[in-house]
Write a structure and sequence with these properties.
Blueprint (H helix, E strand, L loop, with lengths): L3 E6 L3 H16 L3 E2 L8 E6 L4 H13 L1 H6 L4 E6 H6 L2 H5 L5 E3 L7 H11 L3 E3 L20 E5 L1 E2 L10 H5 L3 E2 L2 H13 L4 E5 L7 E2 L2 E2 H8 L7 E5 L8 H9 L6 E3 L7 H6 L6 H14 L4 E8 L6 H14 L3 E6 L17 H24 L5 E9 L6 E5 L5 E5 L9 E9 L4 E5 L2
Parallel strand pairs: 1-2, 1-3, 3-4, 4-5, 5-6, 7-10, 10-13, 14-15, 15-16, 19-21
Antiparallel strand pairs: 8-9, 11-12, 17-18, 17-20, 18-19, 20-21
Helix pairs in contact: 9-10, 13-14
Bound molecules: iron/sulfur cluster.
């Protein structure tokens, strides 16, 4: 199939990984990646449904692409990912210029679907959730990049009451360890230096007698991969064994993303999170004791149904006490079909926004203090690209996942690890000079 394709990705790291798998699937079928969307014969939008806003953004983008399709009638426009799974063929009714809707378990069919679209021009919808989420056997294609995502598991059994993921990604399935490690070796051959192992809850990983800490240990033996991260850890399942592997293995980055979501035990129970704030705090203390340089990040929702001002204050107090290095903060967003939809006590939008703003303000203060505490320290930074803003400056990240603008009098190459002394800090970036 001598056609070109372009993929636009929205949402989480699992979607980044899925897009890389779609890319290898289509290049394997003879298609070529287009550099720009306007050049492509097929445009694939990989969508996110985790919040109402993310979904509106994706659907807005599909609407915008109508003009491109009018100017280039042979173009094929495909929506895949979580919004495709959630809304299915109704999207083909809603957007007449859309050619296909592909659910989260049907990616492997994409080459065949595209051949049919180019030959017969018949609209297609594939959203069969009963399929097992098989990888395509080709592994993800991250050619030309320094970092990559790699799924160890898919789906989720936790059913947090606000979350749509179990409905659009299905139940938890762990990938066989040999497949994960084989993909990692392939990534090393592509020149990848850093791999993020992804799963909706990596701590639930199990294949035969292998749990996630053991898989992580085995991943550290893959030659050529210098750094390994993972996301996401559910606090109810974070084990001492995982903390010990993180502390012992030099290739595992000392960065832990541990979603708090709320600081009140009553709200955590309504969210079906299955931990208390006391348990969460004991985990963070244990992790920091084992890894004094640990960078700790989190996700927090403001304005969950029924959350009182006092309960929101408990979240602020938890943030103040734990002092996360950074946080992704959101207003509660109702997702159709989830259990939280039926809960009473919807918080009015202005109140939700006010709580979110207070949370952001507090976290911004803590983040800048955390970054300023890095001034004068030396970190190993993996260089990812040249800075667009300043000549002689390169962008990279520390093991703790902090972004660093690296000033260097000599040329640095993406994939190179350099020692950098931090001289300045803003809320988003550290700035430093190469010392080695
Ligand atoms: S653990 Fe909870 S929040 Fe995370 S994907 Fe599963 S249901 Fe959603």
């Amino acid at each position: 199939m001598s056609k070109t394709f372009y993929i636009e990705t929205y949402g989480c790291q699992m979607n980044v990984y899925d897009s890389a798998c779609i890319s290898s699937l289509l290049t394997g079928a003879g298609m070529t990646k287009a550099e720009f969307l306007e050049q492509a014969d097929a445009v694939i939008i990989n969508s996110c449904a985790v919040r109402g806003h993310a979904e509106e953004r994706v659907l807005g983008r599909v609407g915008e692409l109508k003009g491109l399709k009018t100017n280039k009638p042979g173009l094929k426009l495909i929506l895949c990912g979580c919004v495709a799974q959630e809304q299915g063929k109704t999207l083909l009714e809603l957007f007449k210029h859309l050619d296909a809707v592909i659910g989260t378990k049907n990616y492997a069919e994409l080459p065949d679907i595209l051949i049919r679209l180019f030959n017969e021009d018949l609209k297609q919808c594939r959203d069969d959730m009963s399929l097992s989420p098989e990888e395509n056997g080709l592994g993800p294609d991250f050619t030309g990049q320094v970092t990559a995502q790699l799924a160890v598991m898919r789906g989720c059994n936790n059913h947090c009451s606000y979350c749509i993921v179990p409905y659009v990604r299905g139940p938890e399935t762990s990938r066989p360890a040999p497949a994960v490690l084989g993909d990692m070796e392939r990534l090393a051959r592509q020149g990848i230096k850093e791999v993020t192992l992804v799963g909706q809850n990596v701590n639930s990983y199990h294949w035969q007698d292998l749990n996630f800490p053991k898989l992580l240990q085995q991943s550290c033996r893959v030659e050529g991969i210098e750094r390994i991260r993972f996301i996401t850890s559910h606090p109810k399942d974070l084990s001492d064994e995982l903390i010990a592997v993180m502390a012992e293995q030099p290739r595992v980055c000392q960065h832990l993303h541990l979603p708090l979501q709320a600081g009140s035990d009553r709200i955590l129970a309504l969210m079906n999170r299955r931990y208390t704030i006391g348990h969460f705090m004991s985990l963070t203390e244990k992790a920091r004791q084992a890894m004094p340089e640990l960078v700790l990040t989190t996700d927090i929702i403001a304005g969950f149904p029924g959350e009182t001002e006092g309960e929101f204050q408990e979240t602020l107090a938890a943030v103040q006490a734990i002092r996360f290095d950074a946080a992704f903060t959101y207003k509660y967003s109702e997702r159709p079909g989830t259990r939280a939809c039926g809960l009473e006590g919807n918080i009015p939008e202005p109140e939700k926004l006010d709580r979110l703003n207070r949370l952001i303000k507090l976290q911004q203060q803590i983040t800048i203090e955390s970054n300023r505490a890095d001034i004068g320290k030396t970190y190993e930074v993996l260089v990812e690209k040249e800075s667009k803003k300043a000549k002689g400056q390169f962008m990279g990240r520390t093991g703790g996942n902090k972004t660093v603008a690296v000033n260097s009098s000599r040329e640095l190459k993406p994939g190179q690890t350099v020692k950098v002394k931090i001289e300045k800090a803003t809320q988003a970036t550290l700035v430093g000079e190469v010392i080695q």
